[in-house]
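User: Teach me something about this protein's shape.
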Amino acid sequence: MSMSPFDQMLALLQRLDEAKISYRLQNSREGAVSVLAFAPGEYWEIDFLADDSMDIERFRSDGRIHDATMLEELFALWSEPESTDAVIENDAIARK
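Assistant: First, the predicted structure itself:
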């Protein structure tokens, strides 16, 4: 008999605790609970989904260290201006 997703998550948390691997739980995706597990130079995002599946992404550092000027790149990624002359078809509000 296979384990339920909840049981799988509990088993993972127990293994992380036993291995003394730092982790954090979060809910940033609808229909999922994420376990962020932290290792030197990387972290793993393990999503337990409502449809009983699991998604795993691994994020690794390239080892480069940047100074504070790098923050401008972060803000540039999230501050692209909205087009002021776009009209979206079937949109109740047309933007000028």
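Now, about its shape. Strands lie at 22-26, 32-39, 42-49, 54-60. DSSP finds two helices and four strands in the chain. If you'd like, I can walk through any region in more detail.
User: That's plenty for now, thanks!
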